[in-house]
Amino acid sequence: MVRNEAYVTLLVTDSYAPGALVVANTLREYGTTREIAVMVTSNITEQTRDLLKLSFDRIIDIDKKDSGQLNELSLLGRPELGVTWSKLAVWQLDYDKVVFLDADVLPLRLVDELFDRPEFSAAPDAGWPDCFNSGVFVAVPNAETYKELCALATSKGSFDGGDQGLLNTYFSSWATSAPEHRLPFTYNTTPTAVYSYVPAYRVNRDKVAIAHFIGTLKPWHVQQPFSSGHHSSSQEEKLDLVQQWWLTYNRYYGTKPTTETAPLPETVTVAANDESVAANASSTNPNTSSSASQPPKLPVFDPAVPPNSKVKPVFPWEQNRSEICTRVWYD
Ligand SMILES: [Mn+2]
């Protein structure tokens, strides 16, 4: 293992734990030579920490930092993102280099080459490509940088109320910086973005290294968010990455309790007709299924129909949500 370099993600709420766990498990499965760490705030429960311990090399307690900039956050439509200032703790870490990944990303292959990049490296934001998206970036922890970021947070704040606005102000030369600082969009592809260049997605789909599920609806929130009517068929095409998240998640956790070893792959499938759907579960091993040619449907849950008993809760808060398991996690 390469010393003093790490992938780092952040957990400020239990409800993002499924995402963080998928990040850790994929990086390990792809054979990374770097440490895999998660920064957690004090509100993360013991139950979640126990799950994290099984997948991460290191759990790092950090202070919760909230911008409290409700005006800017409401402009962004994401009042909950003030706490993402906690991400600044990256520059306090004792690593020589960090590849930071949001918990809502899905690495699709080994991306250790990112450690060859200098600080600060990131990919363009789909909504304003002269800004970078702060869901994937390369940083070099440094106490002075951390101090300056905190000073900037106090003096100017963040133009979007979250970490991305603040970091874009601090690393404002990124847009005109040398090519090595500018990661290809394939390292931070945002299939759930409102605007997307679908033909480009179609020709570059196989090059996507990291998918980033931006927006309030995360893959683990999927109830029926992507059914027909919400998106054009061309937009739905790129949502196969949401399905990919579920296939990956189920590969590690299936429906078995996560404290057990050797997870049994099990895929949640649904009837073809969205209108009359029930949430069925079938034991499907992704390794033997023909999912490559015909991806299964997104997991859908209809609250009116009790789910198949095979869909068992995996996470503690899944059980707490309601009497019937939805496999949908919320705060
Ligand atoms: Mn994100």
* Domain unit count: 2
List bound small molecules.
manganese (II) ion
Radius of gyration: 20 Å
Give unreliable regions as ranges. 223-230, 256-311, 319-327
Structural class: alpha/beta
Q: Number of DSSP helices?
A: 9
**Overall helicity:** 25-40%
CATH third-tier fold name of the largest domain: Spore Coat Polysaccharide Biosynthesis Protein SpsA, Chain A
CATH level 4 superfamily of the largest domain: Spore Coat Polysaccharide Biosynthesis Protein SpsA, Chain A
Topology record:
Elements: E1 5-11, H1 17-29, E2 35-40, H2 46-55, E3 58-61, H3 70-76, E4 97-101, E5 105-107, E6 121-125, E7 128-139, H4 143-155, H5 163-170, H6 198-204, E8 210-212, H7 233-237, H8 240-253, E9 267-270, E10 279-282, H9 316-321
Parallel strand pairs: 1-2, 1-4, 2-3
Antiparallel strand pairs: 4-7, 5-8, 6-7, 9-10
Helix pairs in contact: 1-2, 1-8
The chain binds manganese (II) ion.
Manganese (II) ion (MN) binds at residues 102, 104, 135, 212, 214.
Describe the structure.
This protein is an alpha/beta fold and 331 residues long. It has two domains: 5-187, Alpha-Beta Complex (Spore Coat Polysaccharide Biosynthesis Protein SpsA, Chain A), CATH 3.90.550; 217-321, no CATH class. Helices cover 25% and strands 16% of the residues. The chain contains nine helices and ten strands. Strands 3-2-1-4-7-6 form a six-stranded mixed sheet, with helices on both faces. The protein has a two-stranded antiparallel ribbon with strand order 5-8. A two-stranded antiparallel sheet has the order 9-10. Strand 6 (121-125) and strand 7 form a beta hairpin. The radius of gyration is 20 Å and the shape is globular. The two termini are 35 Å apart. The model is unreliable at 223-230, 256-311 and 319-327 (pLDDT under 50). The structure holds manganese (II) ion.
